[in-house]
Specification:
271 residues, alpha/beta, Rossmann fold, seven-stranded parallel β-sheet, two-stranded antiparallel ribbon, binds nicotinamide-adenine-dinucleotide
Length: 271
């Protein structure tokens, strides 16, 4: 029986991945800073394949390296090995240019989105190197491919750095483990989750401009759709430095081409 650990998985993309992995026969360890959501997420997971898979929840703040070590230790103690570790926890930027962000807001984004991924990867890499195998996935986002937009500079800075970090760690893994530990990227595209309308944890609400909603209606998807595509590919992956991509250029192009015929409305605006 294989085991997956996912950070920031009490809701959204992380929870959807956890459900899909459990449906696929994995033991699943979810973790988050939001304890209430974590409890209800655990209940939902325990109802999936209860006869042959298990779920565990661990409170973990990815900005705290000690929490991440305890997350690895809890998973390894419960299930023996960790086969896949996904650094999924992430926060959005308030929709403001850098000159209007406070130092605290900037630090918060970099701490969770970049340092959280670095700390999580470090713990998982050490554990997987010792056990002799495993896959680490770091979640990319806006900016990973050098896209730029006012209001998303700090988020994009963090995600661009996550991409560099992940590729460079894959190179280290090639040197240190001969690629036995696979360090990979997961590129989900635009997902209709609480993330797109919240910043500063959930403390700040983001009002999406009409222009943005239009793009999201064309390119966005619910995370349930995306995990059906990415999770089987992560499970089957045998390559170090792989990138599992949902919103490829071809898919985006085809969405724009067919947007006139296939009207989608995630925001309930087109009554
Ligand atoms: N939604 C999108 O359009 C989109 C697009 C590309 C990439 N992503 C990335 O996908 C990942 C998941 O996003 P989502 O849309 O499911 O967001 P979400 O806001 O729905 O879920 C994020 C989860 O992370 C948790 N979290 C936040 N800070 C944490 C911390 N310090 N420690 C542990 N957990 C923490 C939250 O409590 C929440 O449960 C993020 O890395 C995000 O950057 C999202």
């Amino acid at each position: 029986m294989k085991t997956v650990v996912i950070t920031g998985s009490a809701r959204g993309f992380g929870l959807c991945q956890a459900k899909k992995f459990k449906e696929s026969g994995f033991n699943v360890v979810i973790s988050d800073i939001n304890e209430n959501n974590l409890q209800s997420a655990l209940k939902a997971l325990q109802a999936i394949r209860p006869q042959d898979t298990k779920a565990l929840s661990v409170v973990c703040d990815v900005t705290n390296p000690q929490d991440l070590q305890e997350l690895w230790d809890s998973a390894a103690q419960a299930f023996g090995t960790v086969d896949i570790w996904i650094n999924n926890a992430g926060v959005n930027s308030p929709d403001k240019p850098v000159c209007e962000l406070t130092g605290k807001e900037i630090a918060f984004i970099l701490d969770v989105d970049l340092k959280g991924t670095v700390y999580g990867s470090r713990v998982a890499f050490a554990g997987m190197r010792a056990q002799g195998h495993g896959q680490i996935y770091n979640v990319e986002g806006y900016g990973s491919n050098d896209a730029m937009m006012t209001g998303l500079t700090m988020y994009g800075t963090a995600k661009r750095a996550v991409t560099f970090f992940t590729r460079s760690l894959a190179k280290e893994s090639q040197d240190l483990t001969g690629g036995q530990v696979k360090v990979c990227r997961l590129t989900p595209g635009i997902m209709i989750t609480d993330f797109i309308t919240h910043a500063n944890g959930d403390a700040t609400r983001i009002e999406l401009p009409e222009k943005t909603k239009k793009v999201y209606n064309i390119l966005g998807d619910y995370p349930e759709t995306i995990v059906d595509y990415v999770v089987p590919r992560m499970i089957a992956n045998e390559k170090n430095d792989a990138d599992i991509v949902w919103l490829t250029n071809a898919r985006a192009f085809s969405r724009f081409l067919t947007a006139g015929f296939k009207k989608r409305d995630f925001f309930g605006d087109k009554k």
